[in-house]
Structures are given as structure tokens and as C-alpha cells.
Amino acid sequence: MPTVIPFVPQNITVHLGPPSSNAENVTVPFIDYVKNVASSEIYPTWEPSALRANILAIVSFALNRVYTEFYRSRGYPFDITSSTAYDQYFVNGRSYFENVSRIVDELFNDYLRRPGFVEPLAAKFCNGTTVTCAGLSQWGSQELAQQGLNSTEILRNYYGDVEIVPDAPVRGSQSSYPGTPLRVGSRGPFVSVIQTELNRISRNYPAIPRIPEVDGIFGPRTEEAVRKFQEVFDLDVDGVVGKSTWYALVRLYTAVLSLSELRSQGQQYYAVNWAYPSGLQQGARGDKVRHLQYMLSVLSEFIPQIPEVQVDGIFGPATRTAVLAAQGWLGLPQTGVVDEDTWDGIYDQFAGIENTALRSEVTFPGIEGTTLRQFPGDGLRQGNQDEVRQEVVR
Fold first, then answer.
1. Which of 43-47, 99-103, 156-160, 297-301 bottoms out in mean pLDDT, i.e. has the lowest?
2. Which of 171, 199, 229 finishes a domain?
3. Quick one: 386 and 327 in the same domain?
4. What whole-number distance in Å separates Cα of residue 247 and Cα of residue 26?
5. What share of the chain is helix, strand, coil (3-state, %, to 5)?
6. Residue 114 domain-assigned?
């Protein structure tokens, strides 16, 4: 998807009726939207674990609509509808139940996803009595809560193997379209986005030629694929990715991966959680080591004293040398062990690098054949606490 990092929008625009109806659109804070839907869909007297499970499903479904630009990619000026035939029950202007409101305050920026996927789960649900579906049963969740299941167990009972992503970043709504057309000569992460989408769509539509390398460079092979895509889907064949072609790509990419469906092929990604991981030292392995190496590799491009390090998830001698150098540059004790002060110091410097590495495409030699690409939004500044994630584009 164009939006690499799932985020919680500050506001969401709701269409007060079915998609094609001549109904009003209202824009409300996302947290108020969730409180409204939760107060409209579920009973405040239910067990807390049932309430939490339902609220997480409500949040995740709404975020999936925003993430996939489900309606906006079809030309609608809204993010979601109030029609239960399509989306979730929203009653404009209604009041909220106090206990529901408190739980939403805690959970509004948590969401569900499949392990290894990036997009919020399209967590469909129904009341479980008059209407049944493949997703969560609202009354069934209450029965499970009364049996002693917690919210995670309830969700996994209905959705299978899911995980909860806590504290997703909150930011202003922004369409994925880069604002200006992309054409031969364009470079950067937006080009990587369309190359990735075209290559995946071409698996379902073989007439579209594959682009040999996702390199962020809009060259002749990318133009050829764009032209064929435009021809297949009855768009103006000019080889330029303007707004109509961009959103046609969004729609088709969402469709071929079923990203807006409960049973989705999903987007795989390389996740970066910037929370302190407890002490890392030589011999450690895993994703947290990769996150450390990624930050050090970015810093090495700007701070000559810090040597380049391979992003391989193995805390070996080279990583220890880079940590020692970073500690020396930060004025911290040079232990070679990444304690909380060292992690925070490295992160603060990393987060302060804006409009450079954070806004461009960075290829790391330790991950052969992959490119990390960033969401093309606002740069991070020192002190920014938002969680940032990168996606591996294969």
C-alpha cells in the first residue's frame, strides 16, 4: 500500500448513509468516532473483556478503511460510512456511555493485525443473533467473557492468530497521492510505491510487464508498465502517474491482496518499534539488534566517528565498535553495552535527522534484495515519541 505506516488519523470523515446515497458527510475526531460506534454497537453492561475486544475490532476495521483508502480511492470524499451493510453503526450527535468512553480513551490507537502483516485487520463483526458472519460475534464475545476469557483470547477465538499493536502514531489525515504526477525521471519512495504495486498487480494481470528492480527510479521499464496498466484499466495512456492512475493502482493493489477483507494475503513488512529493548550486548540476535543497527547505519552517514554497520540482526564485533563510537560521541560511558541511556541517545540523534535519511529510500547491504522505504509524511524531530515502522519492499 502507499501508506506504509498504519497511523491513527486525528479526524475521520463519515458518510451518513450507504456509499452512493445523497447523505451528509461529517468529520469528527477519530477517538469520538470510536466512542460513538462502540456506544451504538455494544452494551455498556457487558463484561470489560468483551467491551475491550469489541472496541479493538471497531478501531481495527475503521483503520483498515483509512489505510486502504477504500472509499477515497473510488472517488468518494469520505473515509467510512454509517451503514452497517458496509461498515459500522454511527449515530451523528449521540452521547457516549461513560465506561465505554474510558476504555476507548485507552484503546483508540491500538489495533489488530496478522503477525507479519502491516495493515490493520479488516475486523468484521456482527451481532451474532439476528446476523452471523465470519468475524466476531458481539453477543458471543459477551458469552466468552462470562466464561472467563480475556479480550485477546476472545479476539483470537474469532479471528485466529492476531496480535495487538499498541500506541500507533496519531497524525493528521493525508492522502497517499504525492501531490504532483510521477513520470520518467522521477525518483524517490513514491516511485518505489508504484513499482511495488505494479509488480504485484502484474501477477494477476500478466499483460502488465514486471519491473526488474524496485529502485525508486522512474525509467523506461516503469513507464512501460504504467502504460500497459493504463491500457488494461481503460485510463488515459500517457505513461504518467497522475491522481487517477495513482488511485487506480491503490484500488487494484488493495483488491489483489484483499487488504480490505478479513481473509487477506497481507503485506509483509519489517517492523521497527523504538521502545527500549533492555540491555543489548555482543552475542545478542534478533529484530531489536536490527533496529539498533538500522539507527547506527543512518547515524554513520552523518557522524564520521561512527563506523558503518551491517543490518543483519547479529550483535557482533562490528556492531560493538559502532556502539562504542556512538557512546563516545554522545559523552556516555563506553561499555559497548546498549543500556537505556545509550538507546535513548542513539534514538534521539536518529530522530533528529529529518528531510534526509528519514524522507528518502535507504538500501542496506545486510538485507539482500530488499529496500526499506519510509512513509512520505512529516519528518521526525528530536523528542518526537511516535513509533515509526519501515516496510520491506521485495
1. 297-301
2. 171
3. yes
4. 23
5. 40, 10, 50
6. yes
Contact by Cβ (8 Å): 248, 235: yes
Helix H segments across 331-378?
A: 340-351
Biggest CA-to-CA distance, the chain: 67
Q: Into how many domains does the chain fold? A: 3
- Considering the domain architecture, whether residues 127 and 198 belong to the same structural domain is answered as no
3-state SS class at 295: helix
Q: How many angstroms separate the CA atoms of 55 and 53, rounded? A: 6
C-alpha cell at 79: 473515509
Q: Is 278 left (phi over 0), alpha (psi -120 to 50) or beta?
A: left
Identify whether the C-beta of residue 3 lies closer than 8 Å to the C-beta of residue 67. Answer: yes
pLDDT digits (tens, 9 = 90+) for 93-102: 999 999 999 9
Cα distance between residue 237 and residue 88, in whole Å: 38
For residue 197, the domain's CATH number is 1.10.101
Q: pLDDT digit string (tens) for 7-54?
A: 889 999 999 999 999 999 999 999 999 999 999 999 999 999 999 999
In this predicted structure, the answer to whether residue 337 has a pLDDT above a threshold of 60 is yes
Hey, what's the cell of 204? 494477476
Residues 65 and 147 in one domain: yes
Q: Are residues 356 and 214 in the same domain?
A: no
Q: Is the same domain home to 202 and 163?
A: no
Whole domain around residue 350: which residue ranges?
287-393
Which residues fall within 8 angstroms of residue 30, CB to CB, at 6 or more apart? 8, 9, 10, 11, 12, 62, 108, 170
How many CA atoms lie within 13 Å of 207's alpha carbon, on the beta-carbon side?
Answer: 8
